Amino acid sequence: MPGQRECLPTTLERVHIKKCHRLMAAVTLFVCLLVGCGARPSSDSTPAPPAVSAASPPAIPSDGNTLAALGYLNGPIQQFSLPRTVRITTKVDQPNNVVAVVSSPSPAAIASYLRRALPAAGFDITAENPEANTMTFAGYGWSGSFTGHDQVSAVLLRPQ
User: Fold this and answer.
1) Per-residue pLDDT tens for 55-92?
2) Entry pTM
3) Listing from the earlier edge strand, what are the strands of the sheet with 87-94?
4) What are the φ/ψ torsions at residue 121 (nearest 5 degrees)?
5) Can you tell me the distance from the alpha carbon of 140 to that of 80, in angstroms, rounded to the nearest whole number?
6) Dihedral sign (CA 89, 105, 23, 127)
7) What is the distance between the terminal CA atoms of the chain, rounded to a whole angstrom?
8) How far is CA 66 from the centre of its chain?
């Protein structure tokens, strides 16, 4: 039907934690709504996600894990990393959306990690508001955002 969007299947992995169930549920719902509502309309030929050049491996900090090491199949899986101690509570892994909702470490610690890891891996930080715990960045054909609140953080990556 014209103007109607087809929903793509979403891969969500549920991880049980004992604290902050209501806050996590609210953040998860918010992220899922962003992901679902932002899906591109489908066509007969689905464009492939941006290719990542294999010229030289990015510099991943020794205290970090790539998305690939965290089990992701989509996105800049060898270039983007999160702290090795990360606890992902909700995960979206689609060709057009990659999301990690994180309960640990703290939003401030993740923001600090990203400030040093993103430029070293070849990403550009395009905006940052430390007071609001937000950051946007781009690289390898992907744009991303980070936001943190209390003890919950989220990272969203989309093809540019």
Assistant:
1) 556 789 999 999 999 999 999 999 999 999 999 999 99
2) 0.69
3) 12-14, 87-94, 97-104, 152-159, 142-149, 134-139, 124-129
4) -90, 0
5) 9
6) negative
7) 27
8) 11
